[in-house]
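Objective 1b: paired records.
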Amino acid sequence: MTELPYNVNKARLIEKIAELHKDKKIDGITDLRDETSREGMRIVVELRRDVNPSVVLNLLFKHTQLQDTFGVINLALVNGEPKVLNLYDLLNYYLIHQKDVVTRRTKFDLDKAEARAHIVEGLIIAQDNIDEVISIIRSSQTTQQAKTRLMERFGLSDEQSQAIVDMRLKALTGLEREKLEAEYKELMAQIAQLKAILADEKKLLGVIREEIIAIADKYGDDRKTEIGYDEYDMSMEDLIPETNTVITMTKVGYIKRMSTDNFKAQHRGGKGIKGMETIEDDYIVEMLMTTSHHYLMFFTNTGRVYRIKAYEIPEASRTSRGTAIINLIPLQPDEKITAMIPIKEYEDDKYLFMATRNGIVKKTPIKDYENIRKNGLAAINLREDDKLIEVKVTDNSEDILLFTKFGQCIRFKETDVRSTGRTTMGVIGMNLAPNDVIIAMQTASMGEAVLLVSSNGLGKRTRIDEFTTQNRGGKGVKCYKITEKSGNLVGVKSVENDDELMLITTEGIIIRIQVSDVTVLGRITTGVKLINLKEGVSVASIAKVVEDKTLMPPEEAKEETDESENSDEDSAENNNSHAEAIENNTEA
């Protein structure tokens, strides 16, 4: 820092910065030095390598006098009464005053011009009859007699005749008609201009503007200081680093934000780590990876959409319950979040593709959702027995895959669904069997395979090219062999070989596994065991880890070490699962 605001004490500023660092209000400062010398003022603040300098600078602006303001009491007389004015009122009353000044001045100039034009008219008449006018003046006994005779003879007014008799004989005889006519013409043009100003407020304001510009050009000088609104104009977002984050939401509506380094990748068949403390009958149903500066769009079972920034969700520990979503979003009674997607920008060529529980699909330009009010916005028109289950951002070139809980799947072109407005209902995407429902929607470009997980913790990978494209509205093909041991499908994600997946149970247990550990099998198979479940516990949902492979802190790694004592038993179960998968594949 080589400059400080006016009247800011350097020593006190340095003390304040040190105090903020000590109180942990500003993190990441490693050194603070005063290097002021005869060459000029210089304060040096050194930061850790992992700290965003812009965030620290904005915090310094917010909490210290590095950015300062000066209070001004705008006390002025308004109609003779003292008033404290804001900037708008100050400018408005000044404009009213200027309009009054210019109006009175214009009226004065108009009266003066009209009076002179009237006199010039009389002088022109006198010049046309100069010999007779001189004769009348010479033969009159008094000035009043001369005025009266001139008025009677030529029809002049009192002012015109007075102007003539007031002139010396030499000036009277020296009148030139051309000069008088030129002056009269100029006066009439001036009169027309002044009348136009008085008749039109826009022209009146134009005069005021021109005069203010003239004053600025004559007396204005450069500012002694700079105003840097663009570079350092702060918002809440400027004070928050953009970091990778995990957002989780539970069945009963608790939401929280966590750092991605709270979870460690484990081998398939592990028991996982405790993800949160849940109340009875509650568990995590939605988990996504995003950044703290992205928007989160929340779609509800009633077809509405809400929006907040990710950083507006309170950060919480891995084991805490989080914050009730109703405290962040004004949900209506019986309204529940059914889909949550992160979004950075609302691009012209992007769409929101929606799928409902009953197999209805809809495509709407994402621009239609750019201006979401605080109390939400209608996103889709739903039938009474239907609800929204999945939303994806697309570009009109995707292949859409719908999956049902009974193990059916359909793949069709996104272009089969025409774009419609926000409040439309959509069209049939898949013809469902009785009691079957859609549990997931994926796009073909999201991965080379889909990973399917059942309620009892079994899963598999199946290559996307095994699902042939067909027309929208069909019954689809078999994608998972449902058995009593496997249970129904609960989640499907498009994955690549190096991806990672999180499985969330109805007890709130989370396991993070490598996708490469999950066997690639055909469509009509059950899969292998992905997680050991206690009796009465099932898989509630799954989430793909899209970024950040950071391991959990060392003190938490002991959990997995303690659990590894059961690894022999887990290994045996996994071998049995492989045998089942091979058997199922053979049957297929």
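Objective 1b, second protein:
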Amino acid sequence: MTKNDIFSLALKILGIYALIVAITTIRFSLSMILSCISSPQYSPGLLSTIIASLIPLLLLLTLSYFLIKMSEKLSELLIPNGNVERIKTSLSTKEIYYIAFSIIGVFVIVTALPKLFQVITQFSYFKIHKGDAFSARIGQRLIESSVDVIVRFALGFYLFFGGKGLSTIWHKIHPL
């Protein structure tokens, strides 16, 4: 196997994981749709809440498809000339760290994606039901959840796109 083969396989595994996460978001989407439909007062914001509750499912399905189908091209883009060497000649520790950090970055992004749209949906619900006593608690949790999502995405993108620099630093700190 080449370096690109290993990276491509890891991306496909993450694509399968994204599909599993998408399946688990169906419950959230259905509960938001049912609560909006059963709401006694209709407002135009209900449709946006329903749409926002379906976005994580659709994005995760799209991401899953992209990771599974485009893994070879993505691995060639991230590891140029990775098909030249075979693993028999061995990977350098920096390359192993780079692949690992990039994969962890995709993993963090995939796990943060449903949370992002839960926050968006809750924000939409909060705007519709501002006067309720329940909405005060939702508002407080929205701030906490928003910070959590922002940090997760920032960390995920940093790990994915900054994997080379991190792998160099990590290799100097903790060589294999």
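The helical segments are 3-37, 44-69, 71-78, 93-128, 133-161, 163-173. The chain has a mean pLDDT of 78.
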